[in-house]
Amino acid sequence: MLVMGLMGVTMIMFLVVLSFSKVFAIKEKASTASEQASYAATSVIYEVVMESVEEYDRSLPGKVDEVIDKTLKEKIEEKKEERLTFNPFLSENEAKIEAINEVISDELKNGGGPGQGLGLGVRKELLNKILLDKLTSDSTNQRIRSAVADIIMNNDGLLEGTTIDYLDKYQIKIETSARYEALKYDELIPEDKRKLKQKAKGPEIDFIKELNGWTDYRIEF
To answer: What is the pLDDT along the chain (221 residues), one digit of tens a residue?
Structure first.
């Protein structure tokens, strides 16, 4: 009887340990999904920024007229190569992101400096408008939603209830959850207690600090 009792206690303890382990595993899954999704959404932002840069360059007098010395895209590429030269441990993508933030911030503050035909104030306002329009457009929101949804679903997360703070202190913040199922007596757990939520933030998007008219908002699933 004593041996049987000890075996019963041992099995119960084993089930408890397994349940706790599963909770941690589910939380880790939700954490991974939110972190990867925040980086994916941030990548979309930089894709949209480069599209905005190309539109901005097309809007300025062309280099063929010798009115400008370098396009904004060329400045970013030059700054990226400079970063890679001085810090060989940077990846090409990291160097490009740093270059985008530095060059765009300078352009929004100073208009890129003299000697480009259009006045500094006009250039600053033009770039600000293009960036603001594109970053807040329905198509950009949809691209962010799609990138986040793909990551969360690939990590077995729950789309329902997922939120994207765009931006929270110049970062994309994702809150998502994964569903917990107990090994034993699962039917006793209320549905609203099954969601294990986790949050994560992507890298800081520095140039947003110089973007006039920007307002943070939330995207919900």
So the answer is: 766 766 665 665 555 445 555 556 667 888 899 999 999 999 999 999 999 999 999 887 654 444 567 889 999 999 999 999 999 899 999 999 999 999 999 999 886 555 444 556 678 899 999 999 999 999 999 999 999 999 999 988 899 999 999 998 899 999 999 886 655 555 545 566 677 889 999 999 999 999 999 999 999 99
Beta bridge partners of 168: 171
Residue type, 55: E
Instruction: Assign 3-class secondary structure to the chain.
Output: CHHHHHHHHHHHHHHHHHHHHHHHHHHHHHHHHHHHHHHHHHHHHHHHHHHHHHHHHHHCCCHHHCCCCCCHHHHHHHHHHHHHHHCCCCCHHHHHHHHHHHHHHHHHHHCCCCCCCCCHHHHHHHHHHHHHHHHCCHHHHHHHHHHHHHHHHHCCCEEEEEEEEEEECCEEEEEEEEECCCCCCHHHCCHHHCEEEEEEECCCCHHHHHCCCCCCEEEEC
Q: Crossing angle for the helix pair 72-86 and 2-59, nearest 10 degrees?
A: 130
pTM for the predicted model, two decimal places: 0.82
Question: 108: exposed, middle or buried (C-beta count within 10 Å: 0-12, 13-18, 19+)?
Answer: buried
